[in-house]
Amino acid sequence: MIDSQKMQSLATRLAQPEVKGRSPWADARRRFRRNKAAMVSLLVLILVGLFALFGNHIAAWSNEEMDFSIMGQAAQLGAPSLENGHWFGTDDLGRDLFARTVQGTQISLMVGLIGAGIAVLVGTLYGATAGYLGGRIDAVMMRTVDVLMSIPYMFVLILLLVIFGRSMLMLFLGIGLISWLDMSRIVRGQTLSLKNREFIEAARATGVPAWRIILRHIVPNLMGVVAVYATLLVPLMILTESFISFLGLGVQEPLTSWGALISEGAGTMNYGTLWQLVFPLFFFCVTLFAFFFVGDGLRDALDPKDR
Amino acid sequence: MFGFILRRLAVAIPTLLLLIVVSFLLMYAAPGGPFTQERALPPQVLANLNAKYGLDQPLWRQIVGYVWGIVAHFDFGPSFVYPDRSVNQIIAAGFPVTLTYGGIAFAVAVAVGISLGVAAAIRQNSWLDHLAVGISIGAQVLPNFVMAPLLVLVFTLWLGWLPGGGWGGPTYWIMPVVALSTSFMASIARITRSSMLEVLGSNHIRTARAKGLPERAVILRHALRPALLPVISYLGPAFVTMITGSVVIDMYFSTGGIGRSFVDSALNRDYAVMMGITILVGALTIFFSLVVDVLYAWIDPKIRY
Fold first, then answer.
1. Primary place of residence (chain B) (predicted)?
2. Looking at chain B, which residue has its C-alpha nearest residue A147?
């Protein structure tokens, strides 16, 4: 007697395509999706990004216009209001704070992303090269990193900005100069453990030149570490830029950033214009929070054993 | 141990010299030189000024003179903007203030951070643990330049308890110390908690408990020491960030420390003062990382030096 039910089950089983193997990346994606804090943070980041991209189109005022009916009386007339279109209020010069916050968000995010981008590029190549070549070259390269790290970089950065003029380019260069140091150390460590694996040996045995092994075989295998670290670097870069702008040494008018806006708001809050501090501060804190959570979530997703 | 310290010094001293030379070269490369103003000075005046500050000499002599002045006499030369004040005087005026609140902030961050981290690890998943984790996550996005205005808002403008700036008795110290130490305290607490949890799960702790040691002794004698190693290696970078943060404190609270002089000289393009402070901070940083390394080697018996 043949159990028809079991046969049925076998038939459907055979008809199905073979079970697809799960790549580590798919696993990671699944784990990341289950992490509620990280998913919410990702959503927040997308919203902040949309705010930076399209905020100007919905703002009632441009960031350069001064509302002359409010100028000089920001404390009495400049409070956030729906009627006159200043949803976040105005600053002391009567400029719309909503538009200014959009502008500050654009610049802060840009600094964060570019700073992290430079770190990824330079740090990965430097660390991978040092780790792969090893020996004396490695020692010299990593000593250099040690020396650079023991320099109080914020002071040197300000020195650079003062000497070569305060411009966005100089700011990017200055932040880029320091951001890659940590990255190169992490990447080097990872490279050291990769370079004795069989596939690297195979590549070397078939005569692939060193630079090609680094670019084609080492670097792709570093992507997990690099992605996590880059996500955590973005908020640090934003913090650095905001710090300098808070001191009035970073981005210059008419450009602005979160740090510059927070500095302005903090300077005027005892005149009763609290909204000038609260709105930029809110965006600053929420975005940094979200970046940290997404970074942590990525790390947990890619490295589940380390909780 | 002695050889280890010597070897670390052999790296530290060239690093410092490099910092001095590089910052001098940066200044030398500055477009226009230190006396460039909106109204051009008559050439004779400029030549006299350059002669007074030794800027008319060949580059190598300037560098050697500058390095020699610092190394031999601890002399950073005259200020380029205030002819009657030397860089040493400007630093001497602000440094004690920075050292006072910076030192207190550092001590508070270490003491409170470690206690909080240990307490949270011992009572994992209690309300105290959740509070500690919550604080340490929240404080990540509350750097000193965010804490400072918020503190002033609450304690000066709303409650009127503390003076919003200036330098005087201990009431003037509270807000700078809190603003400066919060994010470090949080980081130290987080690091202590996670490393303590790891140590508490290890074999030697189980042995210590199994042989009937009181919990107090287990924690203090056997768990704390290995658990502190990651904290100690964090102290080096923390020191750098903290001394950087003092710039914000000096600016926002008008405490009159060297941070204020640094930003003022940056706005005045007074290179001599900027370089002096950068080099001083660099020397402190290098010295402190040396101390941290020695401390680390002393606590961790596995380190060979």
1. membrane
2. B15
| Contact assignment for A163 to B29 by CB distance below 8 Å | yes
User: What are the extents of the domains in chain B?
Assistant: 95-267
Q: Is the peptide bond before B42 cis (omega within 30 degrees of 0)?
A: no
The helix/strand/coil state of A272 is coil
Measured CA to CA, the distance from residue A140 to residue A144 in angstroms comes to 6
pTM: 0.81
Chain A residues touching residue B124 (CB < 8 angstroms): none
Complex ipTM = 0.78
Q: With an 8 Å Cβ cutoff, are B278 and A156 in contact? A: yes
Task: Identify the closest residue of chain B to A268 by CA–CA distance.
Answer: B149
B148 lies within 8 A of chain A by CB: yes
Q: Do residue A249 and residue B266 have CB atoms under 8 angstroms apart?
A: yes
pLDDT along chain B (305 residues), means of 10: 79 82 78 64 75 73 79 76 79 85 90 90 83 81 83 80 75 84 88 88 88 86 86 83 86 84 82 85 84 81 63
The gap from C-alpha B273 to its chain's centroid, in whole angstroms, comes to: 18
Range B95-267 has CATH code 1.10.3290.10: no
The distance of A66 to chain B (nearest Cα, Å) reads: 26
